């Protein structure tokens, strides 16, 4: 993991097309602004994990149902 220090108003560039800017710092909370192409999905980590878990569950459910249907 790369750890960088940034102050309010400073930014990072990732892969030439994603910019992350520190917008505000209040105590322990940092507000970030992310400028990325529309085709690049951006999620909070906890939301991303929920999506991945839901996808796994749906895949397992569909797979089991399909196997049951095939086997009669």
Helix content: 25-40%
Class computed from helices, strands and strand pairing: alpha+beta
Please report the total strand number as a whole number: 3
Give the CA-based shape.
Answer: elongated
Q: Hey, roughly how much beta strand do the residues contain?
A: 25-35%
Rg calc: 20 Å
Q: Which stretches of 5+ consecutive residues score pLDDT under 50? A: none
Largest sheet: 3 strands, antiparallel
Distance between the terminal alpha carbons, to the nearest Å?
A: 50 Å
Mean pLDDT: 90
Main-sheet strand order equals: 1-2-3
Order of helices and strands: EEEH
- DSSP helical segment count: 1
Topology:
Elements: E1 11-14, E2 18-26, E3 29-35, H1 45-71
Antiparallel strand pairs: 1-2, 2-3
Descriptive account of the structure:
By secondary structure, the protein is α+β, with helices and mostly antiparallel strands. It has one helix at 45-71, and strands at 11-14, 18-26, 29-35. Strand 1 (11-14) and strand 2 (18-26) form a beta hairpin. The longest helix has 27 residues, at 45-71. The model has no long low-confidence stretch (mean pLDDT 90).
Brief description of this entry?
With about 70 residues, the chain is of the alpha+beta class. It has one helix spanning about 45-70, and strands spanning about 10-15, 20-25, 30-35.
Keywords:
72 residues; alpha+beta; three-stranded antiparallel β-sheet; 1 helix; 3 strands; 28% strand; elongated
